[in-house]
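new request in #modeling-help
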Amino acid sequence: MTYPASESHPPAANSIASAAAATSDDGNAREPILATTGISKTFPGVKALQGVDFRLFPGEVHTLMGQNGAGKSTLINVLTGVLAPDSGTIRLASEIVAFASPQEAEAAGVRTLYQEVNLCPNLSVAENIFAGRQPRRFGAIDWPDIKRRAQAALARLDIALDVTRSLDAYPIAVQQMVAIARALSVDARVLILDEPTSSLDDSEVAQLFKILRHLKQSGIAILFVTHFIEQTYAISDRITVMRNGEREGEYLARDLPADLLVSKMVGHERMSERLREAAHEASDAGEEAQSENTAPAFIELRGVGKRGTLQPIDLDVQRGQILGLAGLLGSGRTETARLLFGADRADSGTMLVDGKPVRLRSPHDAVRHGIAYCAEDRKKEGIVADLSIRENILLALQARRGWWRKISRQRARELADVWIERLGIKASDAEQPIGLLSGGNQQKALLARWLATDPKLLILDEPTRGIDVAAKFDIMDRLLALCANGLSILFISSEISEVLRVSHRVAVLRDRRKIAEVKGTASNEDNIYRLIAGSGE
Ligand SMILES: Nc1ncnc2c1ncn2[C@@H]1O[C@H](COP(=O)(O)OP(=O)(O)OP(=O)(O)O)[C@@H](O)[C@H]1O
């Protein structure tokens, strides 16, 4: 990720100065389609929103940016009737509204796509698109019509799927597209997308942005939440920065250089320098480590594969090193991780841990060998929403010790507090239910869970998904420091730049097999993209 330098004429800080330009920059005054005045919302111990003014114009993409816990999701929840504000007003096309439920907001044309895919995995794609509003014929559900309409809704997104198959037959990225098709399948005046791209690969993001541009031209107002800075600039007309529950400022995207945006998000102007330094330090550490590649392997795979899932693969993860896995969604990255963790059983090859052959029949076996797996889908395979942050962090450690050897309450608290502090998890108390944390903070707690087990190999599958840019650098720094103490990491991310920044070596996967392994000067983005695209072998 690169941060373009500030222009010599930065926009006024903490202002709606540029936003006032919403009237002048376009030449004529326009009314926002959706606006809030003085919205506040407090949860026990947290002021999630404080006097927030916000406006969204028709025919624009407006991006909401801020660190984890800044209040983005809460603002969206207030706008869409999920939460009632404590004070303040919301206007839809200049009329004061108070949506009592998301259904009411939807009926008024405010459509939302949430951070996590919130569909029914075992219903068909078509049923998911039309759930709750199936077309009927003579009182009965008209299945052929549903199928036709579902196909048409997906065709708008340039996707062809078998709409009769159940949703969970498709990867998360495709499920996300289905959720978008659902959101667009009825008339929308406002489309709100909360981190829609976190599980999409580059070409899918490009496809989504094409659709958003098309929708914007038709006059729809789009509110977009993301942590990806490059995506923000690729799609946004306007940016609102949130910080600690307050609106820091509203800017035209073209007036706000990226490094200034980051400074405004984190709250001090020197932060952008700090981030650049961190990026350099991390890449220096990576280069240094690449040059001395003689560490013994912690884990070795020799021809390990599983029919229909992963072609036999050779892979070594050395002690104290980070092996990156690069490849598109569906290339076999997660499948490799699951075999290494015993979540799927290999049907060929040999696996060695510390030079000795092992058979991992279950995740429990893997954990006993010091292997930890921080999974990609935190909702399905990760957090237990009703348990406290402390219980969630201690879960893997407790499982490894055995449930009959309970960790004392005091020790558990101490450990949880250490990890909450180390990873900067924003919570009022370790006893809070984890489900109440913001998405990024949940992700950090999941990372804490596995780090608390003091693993020898940590498998990280999209570990920074949903994590803000400052925390991302911070986590990378911490991972590199842990490696210096002997931890091995298998690092999986869709962001090739992120993989390259931290990895000592990068294995490139395509079509469920390893096609190359690169290090040193060969590990640059262009080369890896060429390999992934099949033109660099
Ligand atoms: N239902 C709730 N009960 C208690 N606290 C909550 C609840 N929902 C959100 N919070 C807290 O309010 C603050 C704002 O959270 P919010 O989810 O809006 O942040 P966010 O900017 O969307 O973060 P992220 O980028 O991590 O998704 C956080 O401190 C969060 O823990």
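bot summary: Confidence is low (pLDDT under 50) at residues 1-28.
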